[in-house]
């Protein structure tokens, strides 16, 4: 990593750390020898920004997915989990991190920069393995009240790092000075060449993400890095949001390194973005990120540098994965965090889910309604008003000849009149039945997709009887479900059980007419809640 050269040699490990490169074998008498078979040794891979609490798996199950891909360290956001736990946030987070040293990967976490109270943020900043303030949002999220500034001050006062969600796509240039000026250290909110240029110019460690949005986004950004020849040391690799299914089918940091090389990047530079530069950006390159004396013996053996193939993965010198399989699952029990259901939809009627226009054209042939787009997440095109056909006093759910499903965004716990937003939806297409999801952070809301108000209502009522998750129904019958019993955001399941549940949802939706590509439908639907909050569709 440091010399950007490849050489043949051996690595001496003791006490979980590398203590020598090419030791004198006439002097050293090792207790154990591992034959590297002439493979390439690279550092364990690092995800520089990951919402590990928003990908549905608890920490042990998540390790079953990422470690076989070569990932040995993650820098993790906790804001959704803490927000979902509400008044129990501090104790819940302690329980989540308990025995984190037993996981087959290293986790460094951040206290919430949004979605929770300042008191929760302050308490978490004192916890292990929390190292700083997480995702302090840009001004299109922030209210500019005292709490926002108190969080920023707490993050700096604790000597920790301040993650940002910078918003170069939404803010005028003058406001782009704000977050770096108050101590924000990095930025993962880049989507194209112009965004990257601004982020680098303003001195932020810029994290290239690949786990959200259209599959073309990561290619657009890597293309820009190759074209502009920006120094690779400016960049780190991260998933942001990613499903365990995506990790297992495509890979994690290993996949994006390989893609970067395929698109023309120097292989060692690409590897450094996923190792040394990520560690260095958090001041931890003396601990990991390279294969040098004193660093943790987090090592990946691959048969290629241009296409990362993690044949063997070591954490602290211990072999933890081989041939993309975890050798031993962490024996950690999270069942103590499972909650009891707390229904809140009493009094909701099917009529509240009917789609009514905000405006009807003078000739009565067209109606104006809201259109939500799952692929517009994070951008203004997420929700827009469109004109659609209007016949016999009813909205025809199609746009420019494209049939669309309806969507209802429903407040779970109403104090007075229940908040409901109805519109059309592009992202799931079923000819019958309904699918719904629930997410409690920062506010408890459901999203239901279908074409019939009664079917959607019955589906929501069924999910309301659970802590949270996703439910597919047809004719009032449950066809598939995923239970998220840990505060409504995590499944109390191992990896295989979680995969079976999410894949059964996709399989049943396919029977109802939906053809899915990319992330599982449940993960796609859950990303909606980020933008529903950002653009004011929750109260």
Automatic annotation (TrEMBL):
<dbReference type="Pfam" id="PF01979">
    <property type="entry name" value="Amidohydro_1"/>
</dbReference>
<protein>
    <recommendedName>
        <fullName>adenine deaminase</fullName>
        <ecNumber>3.5.4.2</ecNumber>
    </recommendedName>
</protein>
<dbReference type="InterPro" id="IPR006680">
    <property type="entry name" value="Amidohydro-rel"/>
</dbReference>
<feature type="domain" description="Adenine deaminase C-terminal">
    <location>
        <begin position="385"/>
        <end position="519"/>
    </location>
</feature>
<dbReference type="InterPro" id="IPR026912">
    <property type="entry name" value="Adenine_deam_C"/>
</dbReference>
<dbReference type="InterPro" id="IPR051781">
    <property type="entry name" value="Metallo-dep_Hydrolase"/>
</dbReference>
<feature type="domain" description="Amidohydrolase-related">
    <location>
        <begin position="259"/>
        <end position="320"/>
    </location>
</feature>
<dbReference type="InterPro" id="IPR032466">
    <property type="entry name" value="Metal_Hydrolase"/>
</dbReference>
<comment type="similarity">
    <text>Belongs to the metallo-dependent hydrolases superfamily. Adenine deaminase family.</text>
</comment>
<dbReference type="Pfam" id="PF13382">
    <property type="entry name" value="Adenine_deam_C"/>
</dbReference>
<dbReference type="InterPro" id="IPR011059">
    <property type="entry name" value="Metal-dep_hydrolase_composite"/>
</dbReference>
């Amino acid at each position: 990593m440091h010399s950007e050269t490849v050489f043949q040699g051996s690595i001496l490990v003791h006490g979980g750390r590398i203590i020598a490169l090419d030791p004198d074998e006439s002097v050293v008498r090792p207790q154990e020898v591992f034959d590297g078979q002439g493979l390439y040794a690279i550092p364990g891979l690092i995800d520089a920004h990951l919402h590990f609490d928003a990908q549905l798996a608890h920490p042990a199950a998540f390790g079953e997915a990422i470690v076989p891909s070569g990932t040995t360290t993650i820098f993790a956001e906790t804001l959704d989990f803490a927000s979902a736990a509400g008044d129990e946030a501090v104790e819940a987070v302690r329980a989540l991190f308990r025995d984190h040293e037993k996981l087959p990967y290293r986790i460094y976490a951040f206290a919430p920069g949004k979605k929770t109270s300042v008191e929760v943020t302050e308490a978490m900043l004192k916890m292990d393995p929390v190292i700083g303030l997480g995702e302090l949002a840009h001004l299109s999220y922030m209210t500019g009240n005292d709490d926002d500034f108190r969080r920023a001050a707490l993050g700096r006062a604790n000597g920790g790092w301040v993650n940002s969600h910078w918003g170069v796509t939404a803010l005028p240039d003058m406001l782009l000075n704000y977050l770096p000026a108050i101590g924000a250290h990095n930025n993962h909110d880049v989507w194209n060449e112009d965004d990257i240029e601004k982020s680098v110019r303003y001195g932020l460690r810029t994290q290239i993400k690949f786990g959200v949005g259209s599959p073309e986004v990561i290619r657009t950004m890597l293309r820009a890095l190759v074209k502009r020849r920006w120094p690779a040391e400016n960049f780190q690799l991260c998933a942001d949001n990613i499903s365990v299914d995506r990790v297992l089918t495509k890979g994690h940091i290993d996949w994006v390194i390989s893609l970067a090389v395929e698109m023309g990047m120097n292989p060692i530079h690409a590897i450094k973005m996923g190792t040394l530069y990520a560690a260095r950006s958090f001041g931890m390159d003396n601990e990991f990120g390279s294969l040098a004396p004193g660093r943790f013996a987090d090592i990946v053996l691959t048969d290629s540098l241009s296409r990362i193939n993690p044949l063997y993965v070591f954490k602290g010198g211990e072999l933890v994965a081989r041939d993309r399989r975890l050798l031993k699952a962490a024996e950690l029990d999270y069942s103590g965090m499972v909650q009891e259901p707390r229904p809140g939809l009493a009094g909701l009627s099917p009529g509240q889910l009917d789609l009514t226009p905000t405006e009807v054209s003078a000739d009565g042939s067209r109606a104006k309604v809201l259109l939500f787009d799952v692929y517009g997440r994070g951008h203004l095109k997420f929700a827009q008003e469109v004109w659609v056909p209007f016949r016999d006093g009813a909205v025809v759910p199609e746009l420019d000849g494209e049939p669309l499903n309806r969507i209802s965004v429903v407040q779970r716990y109403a104090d007075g009149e229940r908040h409901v937003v109805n519109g059309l939806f592009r992202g799931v297409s079923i000819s019958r039945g309904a699918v719904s999801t629930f997410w409690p952070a920062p506010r408890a809301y459901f999203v239901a997709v279908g074409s019939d108000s009664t079917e959607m209502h019955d589906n929501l009522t069924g999910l309301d009887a659970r802590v949270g998750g996703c439910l597919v129904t047809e004719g009032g019958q449950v066809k598939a479900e995923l239970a998220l019993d840990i505060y409504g955001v995590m499944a109390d399941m191992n990896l295989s059980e979680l995969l079976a549940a999410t894949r059964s949802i996709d399989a049943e939706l396919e029977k109802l007419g939906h053809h899915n590509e990319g992330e599982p439908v449940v993960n796609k639907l859950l990303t909606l809640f980020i933008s529903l909050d950002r653009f004011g569709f929750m109260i």
